[in-house]
Amino acid sequence: MNRNTAKERMTAWAVQSSEEPGFHAVISPGKSECRDTYVFRLNLPEGESYSLSAGELEMNAVLISGAASLSGNKAVTGQMNRLDSFYIAGSESVNITAREDCIFYIGGAKYEGYGKSFFRAFDIGQPIGYIHQIHGSGVSQREIMMTLSDKDEASRLICGLTWSMEGAWTSWPPHQHEADLEEVYCYFDMPLPKFGFHISYLKSGEVEDIVTHTVHSGTMVEAPVGYHPTVASPATRNVYMWIMGAHSHESRRYDLAKNDPVFAAK
To answer: HEC string of 49-68?
Structure first.
């Protein structure tokens, strides 16, 4: 693949998700380069309801803004507040009623018989552990909350939320996990004129061939292959839901990322 072709390929990885009311498929196999990962956005106006059905997929939904009520699923019921999340396994569904205008980001992957539906309330005060984590140090330190950990029972999905420090990096050193998983970064809480950069490149150390996407609230960027660090502009934190789809149930692991050795050695 020549340099221009590679850059055209990576340029197509970013999309600005729709703000129009309704359920929107943003990333899906066959229409995007990701072959195992789905990303949906649900914009639900106050007072309206939507029945979310997983069908042949498993889904992890995060309430990015607003407040909602859940019903119709014994494992996923009650009041849902900002950054709460739920997981539903294949063929299950849940009824969502918006108590305020709502935005949901929803990750999906093929359901293979592994997974039990559950609701997870957001609690940033949780002790550090398998749900609440701190990664990196210095200008690359970031905070992570797992919405669907690899310790939770599921088929292909792993999902979570990440916050960078102001004007700082996440996913540094640059990493890739292309042999086992693909990923989509779904940005939020970054209203314009706040912005960050999502960086993609295919081979170790080949930074002259990077493609840089400007990201803000609603931007979603695929990482089907290659390295993908991000950096925030001054006075901005890069905030995103990341959705990883494993290429098999066996490779549904959070410890398979490989740092670019050019930078990891520094």
So the answer is: EEEEECCCEEEEEEEEECCE
Count of CB atoms situated within 10 Å of the CB of 126: 14
Query: What pTM does this model have?
Result: 0.96
The pLDDT > 70 percentage for the chain reads 98
Name the DSSP class of 32: B
34: nearest Cα among 113, 114, 109: 109
Among 225, 180, 245, smallest CA distance to 37 is for 245
On whether the CB atoms of residues 87 and 57 are closer than 8 A, the answer is: no
CA 16/CA 188 separation, integer angstroms: 11
Maximal C-alpha separation, the chain: 54
List the one residue out of 23, 82, 92 whose CA is nearest residue 59.
92
Angle at the Cα of 255 (from 240 to 219), degrees rounded to 5? 15
Is the domain defined by 3-120+130-249 classed in CATH 2.60.120.10? yes
Mean pLDDT, to the nearest integer, of 211-224? Answer: 98
Burial class of 215 by CB neighbour count within 10 A (0 to 12, 13 to 18, 19+): buried
In which order are the strands placed within the sheet that holds 85-88?
22-27, 38-44, 102-110, 57-65, 85-88, 118-120
Q: Where are the domains of the chain?
A: 3-120+130-249
Say how many C-beta atoms besides its own lie within 10 A of residue 117's C-beta.
18
pLDDT at 3 over 80: no
pLDDT in tens, 58-106: 999 999 999 999 999 999 999 999 999 999 998 999 999 999 999 999 9
Cα separation of 141 and 129, whole Å? 16
Name residues whose C-beta falls within 8 Å of residue 4's C-beta, 6 or more positions apart in sequence.
none
